[in-house]
Amino acid sequence: MNPAFVPGPAGGEPWYPAAPPRPAGPDRPAPLTARDLDRAWYLDFHYPRGVVPLGTALVDDLVDGAQRAAAGLPLTSGRGLSVRYVGPHVYIGAVPGDEPDPAERARALAEVRRYPAVFRRRWREAAAGLEAELAALGRTDLSGLGRDGIGAHLDRARRAHARAWRLHFSVMYRLLACHELIRSELAEAGVDPHVLTALLQAADNRVRAADRALRGLAERARQAGLAPAFSAGPGPILPRLAGDPAAASWLAAFTAFVEAHGDRSDSVGDLTAPSWQEDPEQVLALLRPLVLGGAPAPAMPDAAPPPGLGAPAERLIEDALRANIVWWNEEHNLVIDLRAHLPVRRAALALAAATRAPAPDAVLFLFPAEVDRLISGTSDWGELAEPAAARRAYHRAWQARRSELPPSVGASAAPGTDPVVTQILCAGLAGGRGSGPSAVLRGLGVSRGTARGPVRVIRSPEQLSTVRPGDVLVCEATSPSWTPVFGLLAACVCDVGGMLTHAAAVSREHGIPCVCDVGTATRVLRDGDEIEVDGAAGTVTVLSRRGDPACTPG
Length: 554
Hints:
By secondary structure, the chain is of the alpha/beta class.
């Protein structure tokens, strides 16, 4: 690791200006120091813009949820997740611990074996309760509340967010354990792991439903002759459509879509990112490549198990389908990851308005303790405006530095210490990752097939409108908001991720090759490079560099 990225009194990068001290404890989120480098930390793709000061409370909730869930299911030496900050950027790692007591592990394993029978009912009930709570928070009129009323609402929003992430990891750790146990036992029975993956992939989910509706809007826009509004260059698309009488019917359908599907954002826990309802231009930006490129719908995979498996393997597959980690890994995003933080954002913006903050989003650049003092009246903007402005500048400067950050820092990971690290992040565990400008980069093949095409490096959802048919998407990782463009792609390459990450699942759904856990793809590859992606071998071969067609593999 570059020592310049290690904060501390020795001259490294500081934490946010004038920040209150973080709570002590080796497993609490905190700025990275040299003392942390005896553990492995991985740049977390969920936070491409970094975390604003108020958002640190949300990261605390995530870590707390993971540690509670791991403690409640002692199957490995891992004790959940923790976080270290480099600038505002999140590095995530496993909390080390002792091997579980054999009796505790046996009890946890028995719970895992019973989990398929209860998962659907428990998830359905818990998700419905959480969604009702989040919807009620979203319907509350904050405009007439004073700072005390907004403060009480913000407290409810924070508590709902904490409960959401406790639910998230309670389910995730159990489903991951189920999946790994069933996959291993099926392999012992001679069943190809790809058979299980294909069966799990076939289940429909709410992300797919939203994407179908989005593709339907794109098709209607083409049929109505509205493509020129989407191809007229930069700038907002909505005013162009609003000024076109031929778009009236389509705009009504678009408004209905946003009302039905817009209570989500483009990023996990990012308080700077508005929801689709707050900023519908985000949806129009996603529609743009679909309207102009005509992305086809994915073909649903065959959901029939192969014949002749035998009764034990059939029972295992039945359990895997009941506790379907691939389905849940998409489904839960619209309940938790992309939604649970939105009431906190809404309350923070309302508090800024009620206290006449120097900017509409100024509260986002206060730490939670400072927000509490602002609500109570023990602090005001005369005291808080200057540090908030300095932190905004710091956050903006560090956003531009993300590409400088190493994919991982500290010691090598001990395989198997935490299933979220090994199965979702797959952080550097594939081996042989590319580390320089080689003609062949290696990672983990997660979706079979071979395809060639020009590189399109995407670092944030705002850039998705630049995707063109036949591009190879190169990114850190993807989220459900990226799904609509997959119908345009020849292939996908990610710096991180494993068989169960979003990019892997959606690539398989669309039948395109995908390689994850490459490590350096976004640093080594550039827009316009021609590459070949082999999703079975896990290789990415540079065929030619942009502007240098003579470049061949070496």
